[in-house]
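To whoever is covering the structure queue this week,

Two jobs came back overnight. Logging them here so there's a record in the thread.

Job A:
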Amino acid sequence: MKILAFVFALLFVAPSSVYDFKLKSIDGDAFSLAKYKGKKVLIVNTASKCGFTPQYAELQKLADQYKDKVVVVGFPANNFGQQEPGTAVEIKSFCQKNYGVTFPLSQKVSVKGDDIDPLFKYLTEAPNPDFTGEIKWNFEKFLIDENGKLVHRFRSQVTPLSPELTKYL
């Protein structure tokens, strides 16, 4: 019985950081945020047909300006107003053509609801000094420290280059 309990515990261990999640890039390749250990990571749920979509430009500027300190990773999601209807190829092309995006993008994920991606379930429940709970709209931002822990969370209205966010970089 002890062995069975131990195996069960191993199978259902709660994640301790964002490094514990398996992800897929927009091109379909497996990747892990663990490759960014030692840098901060700014995780953003994105959409191509949203009033906040122009934030892609600032996200790219932030990625370029702070490249030695932080990595921006976009997670396209279609949870709000069907504002990310495209395929992976269409999303990647739109981001590159319209905003010059070179920072990593994941495949489309769900950031809320019954089909929420495990990473976003973790991020919306992880303690941080700002707030927890469901994502309200596209372009919410999660700042991860150099050890894979959520340290700050920002609503959509906080722009990527705002002092409110950049003071933590």
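Job B:
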Amino acid sequence: MKRICVFAGSSQGNDPAYLEKTQMLGKLFAEKGIELVYGGAKSGLMGVLADEVLKGGGNVTGIMPTRLFEKEIIHPDITKMVEVETLHERKSKMSELADGYIALPGGFGTFEELFETISWAQIGIHTKPVALYNIKGYYTPLVNLIDHAIQAGFVPKDNRDLIINSDHPEKLLELMHHKG
């Protein structure tokens, strides 16, 4: 995998582990020569991840709709910034560039991007690996909800395999590599 799209929070959360584990992932991206594709902001876990990739000599591509330029602080040091008109174009461009996806802890925007990506995989729009970086069990309630949806008959059992889940960055990338 040469490029991975990461969805992440625009804040850092209230546990230092979110920051530390995000930094570990960024260092790993740089070491393995994986280009980061993300929303382009300097804030939150998004900015932490981009900073670590850049610090390690890696490449970072940010994709941001013009109307968010005023709301979010654009990361000034990233390798490349792609300006698009809408959030839909942003997600489409991310998908076009990425070989896989990782969701770090985040809020509604992260959830929305994650679920759209899983939905696209479910209906065959892409076959790229989708992973949850489950720092401190952040995504465990979501995994439990997905398992509940499977048990209740709303999600086909084999679709559970669409989501990779790990709290260890090396293992996460290894699982993604084998699936991709």
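Note for Job B: Residues 3-179 form a domain with the Rossmann fold fold (CATH 3.40.50.450).

Please reply-all if you pick these up so we don't duplicate work.
Q.
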